[in-house]
Design a protein that fits this description.
The protein is of the alpha/beta class. It has one domain: Alpha-Beta Complex (2-enoyl-CoA Hydratase, Chain A, domain 1), CATH 3.90.226.10. It is about 45% helix and about 15% strand. The protein is built from 10 helices and 9 strands. The strands form 2 sheets. A 6-stranded mixed sheet has the order 1-2-3-4-6-9, sandwiched between helices.
Length: about 250
């Protein structure tokens, strides 16, 4: 249905999830996270689904968390971590088809997919430093896992979106295609995956996850506490307000 915040389309043996808030550049709010969570639960329990595509409706993939929602509900109000955790643990391969902007939470959503195809005109970035916010430990870990610490530092510290040439160079995306060919390219990969032996693919995904599971395993309770302090700081509140009011934030380091 047109009014669904996540539109679900079932092909013979793969599923396409379309983020469907084009008027908000597909910004992620509570309704969207809940819809994604429910859709992924369906995938977990359907052995006939062998691949999942995530794409965005309208001009871009996803502009990030809906800051108006964040301002109203607080840092813990949008259960985004639950969704990306479930996405990362999805038993079948997931493909992000990225066009236009994939920013902050939108890039994280793509990052927790197994494969990422980008349209040539896409821009990918992580901009929480601009609003005094901080990703969780698991998001930092995923960035380092995918692109390494040097590229993660560039993405996070500069807070400037990169074009697809730089994203491909970093390993942030696997493939770049003309914008008009993006959906077809994602479907082609999903179809190719679905045509392989399903038990092998599921076992491969579990094995890859297990191989990486201990690679960055460190004690991080103090970092979680530090993150909570940053996300609840006066600067974080000022950053969100400044963004919504379209002005430059006034940082006070408190």
């Amino acid at each position: 249905m047109a009014d669904e915040v996540v539109r679900i389309e079932r092909s013979e043996n793969h599923l396409t999830l379309t983020l469907n808030r084009p008027e908000k550049r597909n910004a992620i709010n509570r309704a969207m996270t809940e819809a994604l969570d429910q859709a992924l639960a369906v995938v977990e329990n359907d052995r006939e689904i062998r691949a999942v595509i995530i794409r965005g409706e309208g001009r871009g993939f996803c502009s990030g968390l809906d800051l108006r929602d964040l301002e109203q509900t607080g840092a813990g109000g949008i259960p985004f971590d639950k969704v990306i955790s479930r996405l990362g643990a999805c038993p079948v391969p997931t493909i992000a088809a990225i066009h236009g902007e994939a920013l902050t939470g939108g890039l994280v959503l793509a990052l927790f997919c197994d494969l990422r195809i980008a349209g040539a005109g896409a821009r990918l970035g992580m901009t929480p430093a601009r609003i005094g916010y901080l990703p969780t430990y698991w998001i930092f870990r995923k960035f380092v896992e995918v692109v390494g610490p040097a590229n993660a530092a560039e993405i996070l510290y500069l807070a400037d979106p990169v074009d697809t040439a730089r994203a491909r160079e970093m390993g942030l995306v696997h493939k770049v295609v003309p914008d008009a060919e993006l959906d077809a390219a994602a479907v082609a990969w999903a179809t190719r995956i679905a045509g392989n032996a399903p038990l092998s693919i599921r076992a491969m995904k579990r094995t890859l996850a297990r191989v990486m599971s201990q690679a960055f395993e460190v004690e991080h309770q103090d970092l979680d506490e530090l993150g909570a302090q940053v996300r609840s700081s006066k600067d974080a509140k000022e950053g969100v307000r400044a963004f919504l009011e379209k002005r430059k934030p006034v940082w006070r380091g408190e």
